[in-house]
Amino acid sequence: xxxLVLVAFAxxxxxxxxxxxxxxxxxxxxxxxxxxxxxxxxxxxxxLRSADGDELHGVRIPGRRNDTALLLGFGGNAWNAESLALFxxxxxxxxxxxxxxxxxxxPSTGTPSAQALRGDAVLIHDVLSDGAPGTIAVGFSVGAGAxxxxxxxxxxxxxxxxxxxxSLHNVARxxxxxxxxxxxxxxxxxxLSDLRDRQIPVAILTATGDEVIPPARSEALIAGLMASxxxxxxxxxxxxxxxxxxxxxxxxAALRAALAHIAR
Length: 264
Hints:
Elements: H1 2-27, E1 44-49, E2 55-61, E3 70-74, H2 81-91, E4 97-100, H3 114-128, E5 135-140, H4 143-153, E6 158-162, H5 168-175, H6 181-184, H7 191-195, E7 201-207, H8 215-228, E8 232-238, H9 251-263
Parallel strand pairs: 3-4, 3-5, 5-6, 6-7, 7-8
Antiparallel strand pairs: 1-2, 2-4
Helix pairs in contact: 3-4
């Protein structure tokens, strides 16, 4: 019996060790990012340098109007930033759009991390927002963490979050209750904490059948913001999964309604 206990403990320790070593690759699966699409001819290619010397590569697509807010997009962990830019441009063509590849996501250099996403969001905003009639941070999935953080530290017109979470810590703990997430997770992001006390318009689109971000985590974010009575909140719940929400017939109208809520 003692040997069985020792073997079980050794296997458990090995699994925990592997999760600790590979958590960055699991949270930021760079190898799964698809190819970039063809972008409109007026697209501008951008390069920024972080304070620690990494290069960030992105694109900016002009909008049809000059008086609309810049949509600063932060995609999911396997979403090509240029695909995201085209997606936002197609769904909100009046707005200028800008997106950047996360650190370590080619052609950006460096190593991805939650801390890097937050810091880079601020850098990108501070460079691109100059002269723009306001900025709306738009975050999808893990990118919701960067968008929410930006809404906490900069004056934005609003924040739009799609399939978001209250905190990555809670997502990981719910998915792997047998893992000591509190001590293991190095990449936590906390949209609820970031936005709870901010007087800022927030729009949230959730997927009720989300198999990646449990709907309970999106609902915890919504409930926490409603309880804080600070953010002006707009919510749309779409009967779709984490990835097919974007092709759902209700998505386009929900996105436009969310932007209208922020702009009013």
